Each structure stands twice: as C-alpha cells, then as structure tokens.
Amino acid sequence: MLPHFLPVNTGFKFGIINGAKLSNNISVIVWACLTVVFIILSFGIKLDSDIKEMDGTEAKILQEEEQFHKIWGQKRLGIFVTTGASYEDALILNDIIYKQAVNLIVADNFSSLSMLWPSNKTRRENAAYLREFWQMGRAEKLKNLLKVEGLKYQFSQDAFSPFFNNLYKESVMPDNPTDSEFLTKLKERFVQKQGDSYRVLSFFPENKANVYTLLKLCRQYPETFLVSGIALSDRISEGVYRNIKLIMPAAVILLVLFTYLCLRDIRESLIALVPVVTSIAWVFGLMSLFEFKLNGASLIACVILLGLCVDYGIFMTYKFRGELDVGTDMAVALAAITTIIGSGSLIFASHPALFSVGITMFIGISTGYLSSVFVIPRLCVVFLGQAKSGKLS
Predict the structure, then answer these.
(1) How confident is the model at residue 391 (pLDDT cuts 50, 70, 90)?
(2) What angle do CA 108, 109, 115 make, to 5 degrees?
(3) How many Å apart are CA 373 and CA 309, to the nearest integer?
(4) Tens-digit pLDDT profile for residues 27-52
(5) Are 211 and 76 in contact (CB under 8 A)?
(6) Where do the domains of the chain lie?
(7) Cα(285)–Cα(280) distance, integer angstroms
(8) Predicted pLDDT of residue 175
(9) Would you tell me which CATH number, out of the four given (1.20.1640.10, 1.10.260.40, 3.30.470.20, 3.30.1060.10), belongs to the domain 15-54+242-384?
(10) CA 393 – CA 385 distance, rounded (Å)
(11) β-strands 191-194, 224-227 pairing
C-alpha cells in the first residue's frame, strides 16, 4: 500500500551498488574458489545437540551453584519412577527395577524403598526362604552352639528363646504400618499417590553415565520413567533435531520448486539459487573455521536463510531480462541491509541461542546478498546471453 501514498519520482539514491557494472569474471572466480573452500571446511563443523548448551544462565551463577555443592556435599539427584494400578503393583515393579539397577550402577548410588521395605510379595518370598533355610537343621545347630558358647558369657538358657519361638511363624508386616513413625516417614518420601494409581520413587546421582544406563532400563518397562534434567534435555534435543531433519529437506524441495515456478526456466532457476548455496556454504564454512558449533537455533536460522536469500537471486535473475526498470538493485540492497541490521544486532546478545541466530543470519544474509550482486549478473551473461534490454537498473 505504501507506494500509493508516495509522491511520483521523489525516491532517494545514495550510490547503491549496481550489480551489472561490478560483476565480472574476476568476482565470479573469487566467489567460486572461496565457496569451494568453505564447502570443504563445512564438513568439519560440529553439531551441538545438547539443548542445555543454549541455556542463558550466567557463568557466575553456575560457578556459585557448583561451589555450593562442593561445600555442602549435596549431589544433583535424578528420580526413577515406577507406577502401578495399586500400591502392591508399584512395589513389585520397584523390586524388579531395584535388583537390576544395583547391577547396572553402584548399589550405594541407588536409593530405593526396596532396600528397607520391599513389596508384600517379596517379603513373603523372603520369609519362606528363611523358614526353609532354618528347617534344614541349621536352627538346632545354632541353638546348640548358643548353649555351649553362651555359658562362657553367662547367658541365660532362654536368652534366645524369643528368636527360636518366632522363627517359623508366618507373620508378615502389614503394607501400611501405622505404628512405626520411621516407616511412615519413609513411605512419605518414596511413595506418591496419583489419583487411583501409585508411584514409587528411587533416587540416584544425576550424571550422564547413570542417566543413560537407567534410560535403557526404562525402555524395557513402559510403566517407568526418569525425572532428570539430563534426560529432559536429551528428549527435547531429540524432538528439535528430529523436526529439523524433516523441515530442511522439505524447505529445499519447496524452494527449488517455487523458484522454477517463478522463472519457468531451468537455467535461470539454477542461477537464482546461487545466493542460497553461497549463504549456507559460507555459514557452515566460517563457523567451522572459527570453531562455532551448530545448534538448534542456528539450524532454524538456516531454514529462514533459504527463503530470504532466494529472493535476492530471483529478483536479480528476473532483472536480467531487462523488461522493466524498477530499481531492482536498490530494492534488493535495502531488503538485505535492513535484515542484516535487525538480525546482526543479535551478535551482541549474551544469550547463546540469540547469538547463534545472529551470527548465522549475519553471515548468511551478507554473503547471499553479495553473491546476488557480484556473481549473478555475470552468470546470467555467460549462461543466458545478453539481456533483452540494454539498460539494467
């Protein structure tokens, strides 16, 4: 709508670059050589798939947290959660997990309710095993040994009678003891009720080795899950990069398709895609050269670059037809400059995600624009012949 409110023939000019005058064989050769170099360098770029690396927390705060843990000895804990439709079901699964977890990580590193209060099923099995153990003559042997050795220490004859009298009784403690404050407090820490279901919690030191080991165990039991910052970060990272893997090919295919629909010529379409190839190659190459890592933010910025840079290529290629004098150089330059100013300001951001977007957009837009001005006009002359109109603006 803006052009309808502007006076006729009152545009401003500030000596904008004219691609047709500055584009020559030397500029194309220099562009080609540098682009090949950066394409080679781009194979060495590293991908940082950890979403936590884009955390904007200041280094000073992280250092203070680390110092706090060193002084007070508190470890960051992860939680292994088992669920069940009933309290007993949750405890039975928790017993299974505990037996496997202590074999996968150090036993002292896995604090579980099963250590002190296993399921009713396990307690009954343990009681049956003990009865069988003592019934194999061991109880009488122990009783005789205590009588003989007890005389040396002046023990009474019935000192151990309560033990032997209750040895074979089938008494199992109730599932919900109310007469033991210790067990009540223990249950409050390790057991949670969620609606009609129950969750039993186990705690472990949160480090990558423990988390990745227990995640494999989680996958074997659908009724379990981990509560961990590391696990959450990995899951978010996996989701982000899975979507990027779907978006990038789709963006490239649609880009090529719509570029061809705009120009209706294969050679012109390939030339119009030069800024796209240039921007991505130079972004990856320069980031590899200066040891910047690719992350989710910079990859999303690359998708945006595809759509922005192809505009410059389409307009500069279409301008070569020479059918209209519409100030294409001015329009492309202003579009690129305003985008560079807006996105380039993010280079000064301290937040890693914003910085990644800023540096990616700055390099991509700058190189995409320069290639559209210095390279495309010459490529059009070489591969398409002379323009229909002698005046290019």
Answers:
(1) very low
(2) 55
(3) 12
(4) 899 999 999 999 999 999 888 877 66
(5) no
(6) 15-54+242-384, 77-205
(7) 8
(8) 64
(9) 1.20.1640.10
(10) 17
(11) unpaired
